[in-house]
Amino acid sequence: MFRKFTLRVPRLILALALILLGAVCIFTLGKIHLIIAEKNLTSLGLLAGGLIFYIGIVLVISMFESETVLSIALLLPSMVAVAIFVYSFIGWSIRVSLSKWKGLNPDFTWVGLKQYYILFHNNPRFVIDVRNTAVFTVGFILGCLILGLGLAILLDQKLKGEALFRGIFLFPMSISFIASGVVWGWLMNPATGNRITGINLIFQTLGLKSFISLWHSTPQPWGMAFTVIPAVWQLSGFTMALYMGGMRSISDDLREAARVDGASEFQIYRYIIFPLLQPVTLSAVIILAHMSLKIFDLIVALGNKDIRLDVPGIYMWTTTFDGTNYAQGAAIGVLMLVSVAILVVPYLVHNMRTETQL
Amino acid sequence: MTRRVLTHTLFYIILIILAVFYLLPIYLMLLTSFKSFDQVDLKTMWSLPTNGLHIANFIAGYKQLAPNINNSLMMVIPEAILSSLLGSLNGYLLAKWKFRGSNLVFTLILFGMFIPYQSILIPLVKFMQAIKLYGDIPGLVLVHIIYGIPITTLIFRNYYAGIETEILDAGKIDGAGLMGLYRYIMFPLSAPSFAVVIIWQFTQAWNEFLFAVVLTNQSHWPVTVALNNLAGSQLVQWNVLMAATLLAALPTLLLYLFLGRYFLRGLMAGALKG
Lengths: 358, 274
Hints:
The complex is a heterodimer of chains A (358) and B (274). Chain A has two domains: 9-87, no CATH class; 123-357, MetI-like fold (Orthogonal Bundle), CATH 1.10.3720. Chain A is 71% helix and 1% strand. Chain A is globular. Chain A has helices at residues 9-31, 42-62, 67-97, 114-120, 124-155, 162-170, 177-187, 198-205, 222-226, 228-248, 252-260, 265-276, 278-293, 297-303, 312-322, 326-357; strands at residues 35-36, 39-40. Chain A has 358 residues and is mostly helical. Chain B contains eleven helices and no strands. Chain B has helices at 2-33, 56-96, 102-111, 121-130, 137-161, 165-173, 178-189, 191-207, 210-215, 223-232, 238-269. By secondary structure, chain B is mostly helical. Chains A and B meet through strand 2, helix 2, helix 3, helix 5 and helix 6 of A and helix 1, helix 2, helix 3, helix 4 and helix 5 of B.
């Protein structure tokens, strides 16, 4: 591996200086706290010391002129960070979910799958959550795909003002779910009679009385379906952008050839463009589905912890941090992870395999 | 030809109806935020403000959110810069210096982008408490950088994969090593990708809620948490709330308006294919 070693004296001096400085940092901060502006930043200082130390080591490694080793060495901090913050934390969560930790003091007493059993048996709240997630996911994906594809086709017609429309359909993506939930909560005000307001008021003024709706206060499970509206408002533009990207990559020659063969515009979409857009649809479904399985902030802002609009993300949050039932919260978190993993892992593995062949 | 005109008119009608739907919330926000409180009535929700524009709402909204806007800025700016630098280095190595198993490493990193953060939340909170970075902005910055590694690496890797390797070969002949090639060839070519990643990370961190609400205490709340709290309070002054919401959404809206091109590319990169 180390075919060659070239000694570069200035680099070596720098490397040794950094290693020494880093070591001194770590050693000192191990004994004294670093307080800046009344904030205890000891651990950030340790991190910085570690990084200085590590850069010194990398400089030494770089003199061995093995690109592979250097490449791995440079990737190491990110790999370690992900290993700790993603994989070890997942493992830790799984362990908590197999314990009976309730209350502020950790209690890792092994209870097996009891927490999962509790969720699936005699737990009306979790039943509501699963049903709500199902309703939301189906509505959200269908809404985004249909609207997104429709918009992409409309904007594919080379109309004037295309850029303006594209901008209008896409901008909600830049707004937070919280802000969007706040505004839509007001628009979808369920009050009736002389307190009628929001979109219902528009319907009343326009004489469209039958459109007046209780929105997300509609009896479940259909109330949940209305929470899809703000979500689709935010992400259908994104889906549109995905489809537009896909359509751009289909060459005009292909369409022209079909036209020469006498195909109608409709047939061109039906037999040429739609089949070629299938990979885009797959990507879109994966992205939208994983978002909807972990939907959280939108429902928080819209539903104000209304139990009828509960989803696993909120259940996990309240159970863990308001109810201090850590074991139960961890179990919900792990179940959310499993639902996402079933969807995403095959996709990632497939992507990795096809990449390797190239 | 007339048929074409007819279908085009139809298309425009559909597009305009949809555009109204997309603009409705923004219209309502603008409308309400310029009204005085006595005009914010259920009945007149959609009427234009009659007695002048009330800029005072924005001042009141700003007064309520100013510390939180400041917190958000203190968090988002270092976060966006540091995570783009890290992502750039990772992307370069994973695109141009592949080793055995580098695709596996990439895929394992990428998985971190999809996980529901509820599944790591308890260990994260305990860990941040243990290293005494709980409750404050620096801790939140660190968390956003680390969980931003997957997406930033992905965007940069896709971008660098599209740059011809021949350019690097030329540099190698001139005697540049791995870091030299990055420093003198790749990094100067990366400006568009940096724009994408910085905007993306800025927007994500600015709009993020779960980490913010769990990892900070009240005096360090970022703007999303404060806004949610404001909206949930008993007596809601809708005109001030709408002004506040608008202020909270303004930085990302402006980014989108002026740098929408890059914003879009960030979205597309999230779809895995570069």
